Amino acid sequence: MGWFSCFFSPSTKQDDPSEDHYKTVIKISRHEKEDGIVRQKREKDEQVEIERATEESLKEEEKRRLDESKEEGKRKVDDNDQVDTEQIEMNIATEESLKQFQKEDEKRRLEKSKEEGKRKQVEEEEEEDDKGQIKHSKDKQVAPPSICSGCKSEIKDGLSVNDCGDLWHPQCVCCLHCHKPIALDEIARKGKFHRSCYKEHRHPTCCVCQKKIPPTEEGIKYNEHPFWKEKYCPCHDSDGTAKCCSCERLEPRGTNFVMLGDDRWLCLQCMGSSVMDTYECHDLHLEIRDFFDGLFLPVDKEFPLLLVEKQALNKAEQEEKIDYHHAVVTRGICLSEEQNVTSVKERPKIGPNNKLIDIVTETQMVSGCEVTAILIIYGLPRLLTGYILAHEMMHAYLRLNGYKNLKLELEEGLCQVLGLKWLESHTFSSTDAAAASSSSDTPPAASTSKKLDDWSDFEKKLRDFCIHQIKEDDSPVYGLGFQQVHEILVSNHYNLKDTLKVIVNASKMYQFQSFESAHILYVYQSYT
Predict the structure, then answer these.
(1) What is the DSSP letter of 266?
(2) pLDDT tens, residue by residue, 298-308
(3) How many Å apart are CA 342 and CA 238, to the nearest integer?
(4) How many Å is the Cα radius of gyration of the chain?
(5) Could you report the per-residue pLDDT of 241-290, keeping only the tens digit for each?
(6) Geometric angle at alpha carbon 197, from 191 and 200, rounded to 5°
(7) Which of 149, 226, 400, 449 has the fewest Cβ atoms within 10 angstroms?
(8) How far is it between the farthest Cα atoms of the chain?
(9) pTM to 2 decimal places
(10) Which residues of 257-283 are buried (b: 16+ CB within 10 A; e: fewer)?
(11) 220, 200 in Cβ contact below 8 A?
(12) Cβ-count burial of 240 within 10 angstroms (0-12 exposed, 13-18 middle, 19+ buried)?
């Protein structure tokens, strides 16, 4: 019993204080570690928040700088047009100096290359002499000629201007507004314009009222002549503004067009070379006959050439029973009927308000066989009168040589071609015209006109205008007829005789087809 009591009796030994301290330390250490982890996590979260805020701040700063840059760019673009003229000219001068330096540098390199080529050629020739061999020289390769981007002709003597990579003759670089030559240092920054022309190009001035064309809700609206390129307010087409019956230009305010006796208007420049009466047209009549002789198309029969007023021309047209001139202004006619014609005998005088007065006329009977007379409206410039006379003279040639019943469009087209050829013969002097015509199958036409250099600028321009009118005409008889005959002429190497044969055959085919169509229609109507 005593052993059992000794074995099972509870211990009376006390706890060690050092052990409790150790446990306390362990517990505190665990709490500190957990607090450290929490603190690190919190610090990490705070760091992430700080970085995110910093990144957003940087983005906002970058966006602000970008907006400021855009505003600065817009401000610079808006200020471009207000840059001082001296600064612009200084920049252009610097650019020109750089181009000149590059050109001189290129020239030096080219000369150096040529010298090196010559040296190599001399060395090769000396080497061949040493070997005693004789070799035939090979054809040298010639560089293709430089072509002007304006007139499309060869640039000689190296006198050229480089504009945006294209080579030009200096005189061919022209302002896109006034069409006059322009130096590179005068070109505006907005394009190939004189600086003074650029503003006018953006907001044109009306050539009639001499005021800026007013803008509308749809922008600045204006009409422009297809050849003269004169811009004007659309209202002037219907407000009674005078229009020249020759060049078709409108009368500017402050100038006085001349009013002819038949209520046509003539500008002062066209008035300067106008043919006013039958006597003044005599030399021109002889010139046109010589022109036809030079083309081997002689008009042997003599008949009168009369200048008449508009009323007399309309009366003769009615008596000839011509009904295909609708929508076309009649300015000349080849008569084949006997009738009384009233012509202008003496040049009229200019009276008050620039109106021609005291027109002296005479009436005469014209008669004959196939051709009785040629009538042309009076008052037109010599060039335009000559073109009309050449047109009507071709009608006379066809009638006098038995070319009847030609298709209307082809006959009028052929007459237009002859008028065009007469105008083009005035492009050269007489010697140049012979040389030009000798290069084609067309016989050389006699030319009694003065040299082109002796013409005024307006006469040269008026000739170009008449040529433009012929080529750009889209009327169903004269315009389309000219295009068809011109194609036939080109396919026959500009030989008029061969062209006439094709027109005769085409007219016969057209008449045959028309007869068949009429016959079929007649048979159909008979059965129905």
Answers:
(1) E
(2) 999 999 999 99
(3) 33
(4) 46
(5) 999 999 999 999 988 899 998 889 999 999 999 999 999 999 999 999 99
(6) 110
(7) 226
(8) 185
(9) 0.62
(10) bbbbbbebbbbebbbebbbbbbebbee
(11) no
(12) exposed
